[in-house]
Automatic annotation (TrEMBL):
Protein name: Cobalt ABC transporter permease
Transmembrane is among the record's keywords: yes
Any Pfam family: ABC_cobalt
Keyword Transmembrane helix attached: yes
Taxonomic path: Bacteria, Bacillati, Bacillota, Bacilli, Lactobacillales
Keywords from the named record: Membrane, Transmembrane, Transmembrane helix
Listed transmembrane segments: 12-34, 46-66, 78-100, 120-139, 151-174
InterPro entries given in the database record: ABC_thiamin-permease_prd
Length: 188
């Protein structure tokens, strides 16, 4: 693994931040709609958990595309910053969330000593992201007022969401990216 950051790495990270900041804004709108739909059923807290994985995608994409120490953390933080600058109604709090999400993903790559940039560290990162972010939001959203069944249900839904968006979707994105790279290489 090359450890030195290049100008190309920085430009790619900035592009990813810009792109995922927009994705995060879209997730915010979906969250508002889903939360409103689930409120009459008493299930509004699940809106956050169902969509949570969308807010974590910048970190694994950055970690796989830019295989360098800190790229997941930095990618998620910059995407959160872009979301905030786009006018997210979650405000500056997205930066704190972005830190926990990015660091959780970074732990997946740390677990493999930055030697693997495939599905395994993405799975580890999804677990790290889920645990760290849920711990933070447990206090932020007051989940402690819920019964243990509800807390466990929220945690499991979050984990499934992060696994879906952060592992399955990111793997599909990377396969498509690699296919495009191969086609571009074959035509040159």
């Amino acid at each position: 693994m090359e450890t030195k950051w290049t100008v190309q790495d920085i430009i790619l990270l900035a592009f990813l931040a810009f792109l995922f900041g927009g994705v995060f804004m879209g997730a915010g709108f979906l969250y508002a709609i889903l939360s409103a739909a689930l409120t009459p059923l008493g299930l509004a807290p699940f809106a956050n958990e169902i969509l949570f994985g969308m807010w974590t995608m910048a970190a694994p994409v950055a970690g796989v595309l830019i295989p360098k120490k800190g790229s997941s953390l930095l990618g998620e933080l910059l995407a959160a910053l872009a979301e905030m600058l786009y006018g997210s109604y979650f405000g500056p709090g997205v930066l704190v969330s972005g830190f926990f999400q990015g660091f959780g993903t970074e732990l997946g790559f740390i677990a493999t000593q930055y030697k693997r940039f495939d599905t395994l560290p993405l799975i580890y990162g999804a677990i790290g992201t889920t645990v760290l972010s849920f711990g933070y939001e447990f206090f932020k959203f007051g989940y402690g007022t819920f019964g243990i069944g509800m807390i466990l249900s929220l945690f499991v839904v979050r984990l499934l969401s992060v696994l879906f968006f952060g592992v399955v979707m990111v793997s599909l994105i990377m396969k498509s990216y690699n296919r495009v790279q191969q086609l571009a290489g074959a035509k040159s």
